[in-house]
Amino acid sequence: MDEVKRLREAVRELKALQTLGEWIRWGAARLEEAGVCCGHGLAAPGDEAAYLALHALGLPPEVPAPVFDTALTAGERQAVVDLIRRRIEERRPAAYLTREAWFCGLRFYVDERVLIPRSPIAELIDAGFAPWLEPQAEVRRILDLGTGCGCIAIACAYAFPEAEIDAADLSTDALAVARYNIRRHGLGQRVRPVHSDLFAALGGARYDLIVSNPPYVSPQELAGLPPEYRHEPEHGLRAGDEGLEYILRILREARRHLRPHGLLVVEVGAAREALERRLPFLPFVWPEFTRGGEGVFVLPASALPTRPEALGL
Ligand SMILES: C[S@@+](CC[C@H](N)C(=O)[O-])C[C@H]1O[C@@H](n2cnc3c(N)ncnc32)[C@H](O)[C@@H]1O
User: Fold this and answer.
1) Residues of 164-176 as b/e, b for ≥16 C-beta within 10 angstroms?
2) Mind listing the domains of the chain with CATH numbers?
3) Across the chain, where does the E strand assignment appear?
4) CA torsion angle 41 117 137 258 (round to 10)
5) Distance CA 253, CA 305 (A)
6) Angle of helix 20-34 relative to helix 74-90, nearest 10 degrees?
7) Residues in Cβ contact with 180 at an 8 Å cutoff, skipping those fewer than 6 apart
8) Are 130 and 265 a contacting pair, CB within 8 Å?
9) Is the peptide bond before 66 cis (omega within 30 degrees of 0)?
10) Which of 106, 108, 109, 115 has most ligand 1 atoms within 8 Å of its beta carbon, as the pocket-test mutant?
11) Pocket lining: 41 vs ligand 1, CB cutoff 6 Å
12) In this predicted model, what pLDDT tens digit does every residue of 67-84 receive, in sequence order?
């Protein structure tokens, strides 16, 4: 009897919902109740509900306030309900449901072949890597190592209009997505997808700036992640050796690929502690982010040893 009463109330509640704003509040409550994990670029159930509802209506993520007061048609309501339901039942991150993600204010196509862009490095790109790069520094060549959907490489191309960018990844699946995004942004002349195991296929190329968000999630950490992360390609997350597998390789080889005034920027997330324990003598600088996130180091080329053996790894 109680169950019948509960269902009747739920139906009454649904019938009362009219405007987009009301449907977003309904969606947020359902996502909260279901305990979805919001770790893929949207901070809270309310943000996810708003993003999914706007997408269901064919609207961009930012709309003028009066839009939230408009009443939805029956078809629109159904589209919103369907997306919220899929988000809960499939535990699939919102970006994989909509096939789009936003990074540095730019739109990217994403699917399950690539990690969903969310790196705090976006904030550094928006600032032109100041104060670590002088505003007048000559930045002609940039390398994005582990490019995924190409978001860092492409955002760097906008931030440094004179630069040529290599977008490297070992995954041919990821490179197919990166290639598509490069084309959609009309940057085929300046952003080059490269199939490479870290620096292996780059020959003797030297860069003014190397940026990387490599895999850095240790197997133990990976096992404890919420179900949403299992939709992402494991090769984009997993790294052995306490999460340091790729980070240490990058540190060993970076100096050889940086110009003397060059800069290395790497996201290491929770592997920071292990990294500082392993290489206490490297003068890592850890930028603070106003938009959230942490675990990104900046190192000038001059701080890296010329001989990789000097790292003692
Ligand atoms: C954490 S994801 C970052 C993707 C993208 N740069 C971003 O920030 O959203 C790491 C990427 O590194 C790639 N990767 C893994 N091992 C690699 C290797 N040995 N050489 C080059 N790329 C690699 C993965 O395929 C994945 O696309």
Assistant:
1) ebbbbbbbeebbe
2) 2-96 (1.10.8), 100-311 (3.40.50.150)
3) 100-103, 106-109, 141-145, 164-169, 191-195, 207-212, 258-267, 296-300
4) 140
5) 10
6) 20
7) 109
8) no
9) no
10) 115
11) no
12) 999 999 999 999 999 999
Cα(227)–Cα(21) distance, rounded to whole angstroms? 28
Nearest atom of ligand 1 to the alpha carbon of 152 = 6
Which atom of ligand 1 lies closest to the CA of 144? Answer: 6
Per-residue pLDDT, averaged over 131-137, amounts to: 86
**How many of the other CB atoms lie within 10 Å of CB of 25?**
17
pLDDT of residue 177 exceeding 70, the answer is: yes
Residues contacting 308, CB < 8 A, separation 6+: 252, 253, 255, 256
| Calpha distance 93→78 (Å, rounded) | 20
Q: Give tens-digit pLDDT for 244-288.
A: 999 999 999 999 999 999 999 999 999 999 999 999 999 999 999
Q: CA 57 to CA 83: how far, in whole Å?
A: 11
Residue 1 has pLDDT above 70, yes or no: no
Taking a C-beta distance cutoff of 8 angstroms, is the pair 232, 284 a contact? no
Rg of the chain over Cα atoms, rounded to whole angstroms, equals 22
For the Cβ of 193 lying below 6 angstroms from any atom of ligand 1, the answer is: no
The rounded distance, in Å, linking the Cα atoms of 185 and 117 is 16
Q: Helices 45-56 & 20-34, crossing angle to 10 degrees?
A: 130
Tokens coding 306: 């010329």
- Whether the predicted model's global pTM rises above the 0.85 cut: yes
How confident is the model over 218-247, as pLDDT tens digits?
999 999 999 999 999 999 999 999 999 999
What confidence tens digit (pLDDT) does each residue in 6-56 have? 878 877 778 788 999 999 999 999 999 999 999 888 889 999 999 999 999
